[in-house]
């Protein structure tokens, strides 16, 4: 059956909170002090209806996948591995962080999430969660029929970034 409209499913952010510490760098030589946020994520999947179940994607499975991705960075210090101004060195049980060559922090390794991002802005976190979700969906053979992933990450009430990825 042909339908003129399009479907999507959303898992709301209240379910998907991660409380994490971070600091970001700005243009020039400015770097924030370490601080934390109760981040909240929201994801939307666009796609075709599954013609047997008449849904785009199983909510229970989507919540489970997203909860797993949030748990990976919950209660961690989020550190960007690809920021040219920040040097991150793993030393045994510790992670040493320098900013522009000057030592700044030492954290227990188990308290850190070393992330493949250039800065831990909500934009970059939204992109990272989208990439991770896409990997999980594809690994489980569950991306079939999906046309886009949209991720929102909120760091303060009413202050969030979106990333939208079209799938083939
Ligand atoms: Zn912040």
Globally, the shape reads elongated
Structural class: alpha+beta
The N- and C-terminal alpha carbons lie at a distance of 22 Å
- Sequence stretches where pLDDT stays below 50 over 5 or more residues: none
Number of strands: 10
Ligand roster: zinc ion
Into which percent range does the helicity of residues fall?
A: 10-25%
Number of helices: 2
In terms of DSSP E residues, the strand content is 35-45%
Computed CA radius of gyration, to the nearest angstrom: 18 Å
| Most strands sheet | 5 strands, antiparallel
Give the rounded overall mean pLDDT.
95
N-to-C order of helices and strands: EEEHEEEEEHEE
Explain what the structure shows:
- This protein starts with 6 loop residues before the first strand and ends with a strand.
- The protein is elongated.
- It has 2 helices and 10 strands; from the N terminus they run E-E-E-H-E-E-E-E-E-H-E-E.
- Helices cover 20% and strands 42% of the residues.
- Strands 1, 2, 3, 9 and 10 form a 5-stranded antiparallel beta sheet that branches. Strands 5-6-7 form a 3-stranded antiparallel beta sheet, with no helix packed on it. Strands 4-8 form a two-stranded parallel ribbon.
- The mean pLDDT is 95.
- With 168 residues, the protein is of the alpha+beta class.
- It binds zinc ion.
What is shown here, in short?
The protein is of the alpha+beta class and 168 residues long. It has helices spanning 59-73, 122-139, and strands at 7-11, 17-22, 35-47, 77-80, 86-91, 94-99, 102-108, 112-115, 146-156, 159-166.
């Amino acid at each position: 059956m042909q339908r003129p409209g399009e479907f999507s499913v959303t898992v709301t952010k209240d379910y998907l909170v991660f409380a994490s510490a971070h600091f970001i760098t700005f243009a020039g030589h400015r770097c924030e002090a370490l601080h934390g946020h109760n981040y909240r994520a929201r994801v939307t999947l666009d796609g075709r209806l599954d013609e047997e179940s008449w849904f785009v994607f199983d909510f229970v499975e989507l919540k489970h996948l997203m909860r797993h991705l949030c748990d990976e960075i919950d209660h961690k210090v989020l550190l960007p591995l690809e920021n040219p101004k920040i040097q991150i060195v793993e030393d045994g049980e510790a992670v040493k962080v320098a900013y522009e060559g000057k030592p700044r922090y030492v954290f227990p390794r188990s308290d850190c999430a070393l992330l493949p991002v250039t800065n831990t802005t909500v934009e970059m976190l939204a992109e990272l969660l989208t990439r991770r979700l896409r990997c999980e969906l594809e690994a489980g053979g569950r991306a079939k029929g999906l046309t886009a992933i949209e991720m929102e990450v909120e760091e303060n009430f009413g202050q969030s970034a979106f990333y939208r990825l079209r799938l083939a």
